[in-house]
Amino acid sequence: VRAIEPGDKEALKELDVDVILAIPDLTAKTALDYLERMKFRKKAKKLTQIIGEIKKKPDGKLGIVVHDSPDPDAIASGLALKQIARQVGVPADILYRGEIGHHVNRAFVNILGIEMRRIEREEDLRSYAKLALVDASVPGANNPLTDKNDVSIIIDHHVANDKGKVHAEFIDIQTDSGATSTIMTRYLRELGIPVDKILATALLHGIRTDTSGFKRETHPADFYAAAFLHLRADKELLDQIETPPMSTEMLNVVGGAIQHKKIKGSYLITSVGVVANRDAIPQAADYLLNLEGISTVVVIGLCEDMICVSGRSKDIRVNIGDAFVRAFGDIGSAGGHATMAAAQLPLGIFKGVKDKDTIMQLAEDAVSRRFLAVMKEEKSE
């Protein structure tokens, strides 16, 4: 039944009407949806305009920077921005520092044939006409950029810990999306850019990974994007990516984490010693979080000349990303989400110590003490 006057809705409810159509409500919703779409379309046009300026420069290229040891969401988002640049007529490279060490991430890149360039020095960035930072927002925070690099584009879904350092011509940080791949999917759709099966598979895997299979920090936008991508993705490739074999090194790291674990209540803290593949540390944390009675896991490892710490939590009372910032932000770089976090701590005065076991013992004691102190403060608040 159509409600003509505002007061008609209550009267119609009393008559057991199944559906009440109120023209003012429908008009307002349509107008709001249209205005929201126009707002996003304006951003999409600005994004292509900034990328298109590169064509004015001889041999100009766009450098798409993702965070160190990038995950599927960062890689897929970089691939989507590269496709947008290609449609504008601008060549682009996906740039990263560190290693693609996680066995699932390596399978992801290899199976889909995604081309990426590893950055060794800051000088390597200077050859690009413009730089974009994807799935991150602060230059230098777990990425190869520094304050000296002018960033033109920032696209992310994380809340920046230091908003004062976020500067660019174009900034789009959407915290109501569970993955940057969700944001990039919307850009592709709004701009009418074709999404082939490789790009669709990459973006769908990026969304599924960052939302932990739509169980973590998931928003309606993630479901809408996934529904669009699911029709275009290659399901066989997706299955190959998500179920690769475990490496011997990964098995050894998990074994070491189990052997050295220390449990305090529902917290498990452990160290894995020297690790060649730093992505084995968060993998070990994911595995140990499945132990009965454990709600929060912290895994510590020695990666080249720094201490790498990975945290996981399923305790709804804990924001482990915030806890890591409070515990380690003053001695290194740290950040993350409510359920997952990472920190990289320089060795400092212990850099010259040759005995790695001594370094690990000192690191484990310091990390445990700082983390548990922060958690104790949170519980007392």
What would your notes on this structure say?
The longest helix has 30 residues, at 23-52. This protein is of the alpha/beta class. The strands form 3 sheets. Strands 5-4-3-6-7-8 form a 6-stranded parallel beta sheet, with helices on one face. Strands 9-10-11-12-14-13 form a 6-stranded mixed beta sheet, with helices on both faces. The chain has helices spanning 8-14, 23-52, 72-88, 103-112, 180-190, 197-210, 220-230, 235-242, 248-259, 280-288, 320-328, 356-380, and strands at residues 2-3, 21-22, 62-65, 92-96, 117-118, 130-134, 153-156, 170-173, 262-264, 267-274, 296-303, 306-313, 333-336, 340-346.
How do you describe this structure in short?
The chain is α/β, with parallel strands linked by helices. The protein has helices at 8-14, 23-52, 72-88, 103-112, 180-190, 197-210, 220-230, 235-242, 248-259, 280-288, 320-328, 356-380; strands spanning 2-3, 21-22, 62-65, 92-96, 117-118, 130-134, 153-156, 170-173, 262-264, 267-274, 296-303, 306-313, 333-336, 340-346. The protein has twelve helices and 14 strands.
